[in-house]
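Q: What would this chain look like folded?
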Amino acid sequence: MTVAHQHTISAQANLARAAWQVKRSGRSQNPQLMRGEDMTAAHQHTISAQANLARAAWQVKRSGRSRNPQLMRGEDMTAAHQHTISAQANLTRAAWQVKRSGRSQNPQLMRGEDMTAAHQHTISAQANLTRAAWQVKRSGRSQNPQLMRGEGMTVAHRHSVSLGGQP
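A: My prediction, written as structure tokens:
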């Protein structure tokens, strides 16, 4: 990653890592990551909607429900947020449907089939991470566990999106 990439997506990487810890052990080694407390003001501005989605997903994981379910539907995002992370919101929504009912109302979201080519290019590593998480949810294990640690990404993925960043 370039320094710019590291600055803009490091908090996302932290959130993804903490979410993986929760999935693996039932708790995060650093729970405050899930609340966005380690982000700088710049981080909070650029990924606040993503942090909100991750926080709501964590609430669902912890208690079986979100304290603010509309977060899962992207209703709190500004137009700019909706434009820049709409495919991510779709993936998160599908994951939430799986959590809620045991299946997605639109399973192809989990495979990235509804994304434009641009979306697929920019968030393919996120799709991989989400897919692996969905496999864990469905079967109790991932078909490719290293995806949960970011190990399954190509060098190009790491440079362009690392653990879910926007290039």
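Helices lie at 3-25, 41-63, 79-101, 117-139, 155-160.
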